[in-house]
TrEMBL record:
The keyword NAD does not apply. The keyword Signal does not apply. This is Dihydroorotase. PANTHER family: ALLANTOINASE (PTHR43668:SF4). One of its GO terms (cellular component) is cytoplasm. The lineage of its organism: Bacteria, Pseudomonadati, Bacteroidota, Flavobacteriia, Flavobacteriales. Residues 53-427 form the Amidohydrolase-related domain. Catalyzes the reversible cyclization of carbamoyl aspartate to dihydroorotate. Belongs to the metallo-dependent hydrolases superfamily. DHOase family. Class I DHOase subfamily. GO terms for molecular function: allantoinase activity; dihydroorotase activity; metal ion binding. SUPFAM superfamilies: Composite domain of metallo-dependent hydrolases, Metallo-dependent hydrolases. One of its GO terms (biological process) is purine nucleobase catabolic process. It is an enzyme of class 3 (hydrolase). It comes from Dokdonia sinensis.
Length: 446
């Protein structure tokens, strides 16, 4: 019997901050109380005075690049970076090589993760214009959901046949997550600027090419289709203030049929940063204006936006160091997402309770993740200890991504993750990821 006792932590959970102890037995939270005495001489005690204890973060959108793109990242390397950032569970996207668009290929990814992941894991099944039969085979209790690329896809994963799209929305009871950008609008914009600049388009035109209009056209169509068919829709990575108008904050999250997320980079960066960061902050959807950034933050606070995620999508520096048309979109974020959000806390822009709600509780509610996302008796002991007053600077020697770089390089964060527990096991402490794989396949209470 393995016992862990966390003493004198400032526990942040379910809208409250309070001092307490947490007892973990065999990976399960067994007791939460003001003062718990060790019940065995073998208990491993962590003295957490001065630190805050949070539920482990559930990141609902990552690209860990395995299989097929492992020169950029692997499930092993990126899950290690994730636990260093307090992310104890992740949901990975289907656009690997081969793509997870059949049950066989999906299960191959689960098999890799079972042997290599430091964090808990699930994977999205990928929809295409011609794999509805495979979609209908997916077990909703064992798979996070269905991912549809309504723009910016790789391979054959762009679902651009409106008849097929309606059939998918009507036929599946899986949670549908969508990347929404209108390809026709983007193509027209690209033609204009390619004619003017050739391949070397200035990077600050990225949010003009992948414009507010492109995002809104696609998001509004997806929302309208979900309303028409009754499908359960989750719109990934909103990037514009205008899109936030499509979402509701008048009902509890558990009752919402249509939800949305915002990602760290759209909360942190704006188009003012392209001159300094260049293609390092080239994402799809694009980082847009300071006004958009502020409107997204407001929609997060007022609950039109339900979840904070990373869309972690690493590329090598060599790949990024290209002219606009050849530089891929995406960047690494899992290690630095929580420290970035805690900077907003220090600025007085958001509370600790709200950060936990959006990064831990709400992903668990939205995806119906079984017994995770909260500090509750009987739940899995996915926990993180955070020191809010322990500054550190992001630099090459403490970046854990396989790609070896971060858009936050040179940034000094006031807060750091000091300890991460996955299923009751200490997997990370002060820039060291411990050997041993403790991640489990996520299950869903549906």
């Amino acid at each position: 019997m393995q016992q862990v006792l966390i003493k004198d932590a400032q526990i942040v959970n379910e809208g409250k901050v309070f001092t307490g102890d947490v007892l973990i037995i065999d990976g399960i939270i067994r007791e939460i109380a003001e003062n718990i005495s060790a019940k065995s001489p073998d208990v491993n005690i962590f003295h957490a005075e001065g630190k805050h204890l949070l539920p482990g973060i559930i990141d609902d959108q990552v690209h860990f690049r395995e299989p097929g793109l492992t020169h950029k990242a692997t499930i092993a390397t990126e899950s290690a970076a994730a636990v260093a950032g307090g992310i104890t569970s992740f949901i990975e996207m289907p656009n690997t090589n081969p793509q997870a668009t059949t049950i066989e290929k999906l299960e191959e990814k689960f098999a890799i993760a079972s042997k290599t992941s430091h964090a808990n894991y699930s994977f999205m099944f990928g929809g295409t214009n011609d794999n509805l039969d495979e979609i209908l085979k997916v077990d909703k209790k064992k798979v996070a959901g269905l991912k549809l690329f309504l723009g910016s896809s790789t391979g054959n994963m762009l679902v651009d046949d409106e008849e097929v799209l309606e059939k998918i929305f009507s036929a599946t009871d899986l949670l549908i997550s969508a990347h929404c950008e209108d390809e026709n609008t983007i193509r027209k914009n690209m033609e204009i600027y390619t004619e003017r600049y050739g391949e070397d388009i200035p990077i600050n035109l990225h949010p003009i090419i992948r414009s507010e209009e492109a995002c809104y056209i696609s998001s509004s169509k997806a929302v309208a289709l979900a309303k028409k068919t009754g499908a359960r829709l989750h719109v990934f990575h909103l990037s514009t203030g205008k899109e936030t108008e499509l979402f509701d904050n008048t009902i509890p999250l558990k009752d919402k049929k249509i939800t949305a997320e915002v990602c760290i980079h759209h909360l942190w960066f704006s188009d003012e940063d392209y001159d300094e960061k260049g293609t390092l902050i080239k994402w799809n959807p694009a980082v847009k204006t300071e006004t958009d950034r502020k409107q997204l933050f407001q929609a997060l606070l007022d609950d039109r936006l339900d979840v904070i995620a990373t869309d972690h999508a690493p590329h090598t520096l060599e790949e990024k160091d290209n002219v606009y048309t050849k530089a891929p979109s995406g960047g690494p974020l899992v290690q630095h997402a929580l420290p970035a959000m805690l900077e907003f806390y220090h600025e007085g822009a958001i509370s600790l309770e709200k950060i936990v709600e959006k990064m831990c509780h709400n992903p668990a509610i939205l995806f119906e993740v079984e017994k995770r996302g909260y500090i509750r008796e009987g739940y899995k002991a996915d926990l993180i200890l955070v020191d809010l007053n322990n500054p550190w600077t992001v630099q090459k020697d403490n970046i854990l991504y396989k790609c070896g770089w971060s858009p936050f390089e040179g940034t000094t964060f006031k807060s750091r993750v000091t300890h991460t527990f996955v299923n009751g096991n200490l997997v990370y402490k002060n820039f060291k990821v411990y050997e041993g794989l403790h991640g489990e396949r996520l299950t869903f209470d549906r």
